[in-house]
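user: can you give me the structure for this one chain? tokens are fine.
assistant: on it. calling the predictor now.
[tool input]
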Amino acid sequence: MRVSYASNTMTSAAKVNPKNLLLNVICLLALLVGASAQANAQNRYFYSVQSGNFNATTTWRFLSWPTDPGRDDVITFGSPGAPNAVDDYVRIGAGHTVTITNTPTTITELIVNDDTNGGTLQFDEGGNRTLTVSGNVTVNAGGTIQALGTNATSQTHNLIINNNGNLTN
């Protein structure tokens, strides 16, 4: 008995079209670059863990996440840090008073009193201060924004809301 094999079947299956290979490599690289850009595009969500200065890392814990993970997850799994970038979402709550002692950079969103125990954002009396928010500012019931100062000193404090952001109280 004689068995014969079609040698051209194996040969044609092993052939690789250089144009298709190059196209596949380019597509793979584009996917990797896109995935990397998506990972870097995540927002940072900051939740107060105690009263303190706005720029102090001991005042906050944060997580980088595409959407708000919520206070419990940020407090449990987050890292210490201070809001200082446009992609930062800031939440003050749990009876905490956060004091602006210098002019921080622009943040994306601010919520004062993100839970039921009140919260306060205050501008100190050490000089002129500005907080710029590129989105919405929400002051929930029990929350306060205040400026410290005495009659002997004259300061200007600014809360600037850009990009068609809203102030909600």
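assistant: here you go. The first strand starts at residue 43 and ends at 48. The helical segments are 7-14, 18-40, 71-77.
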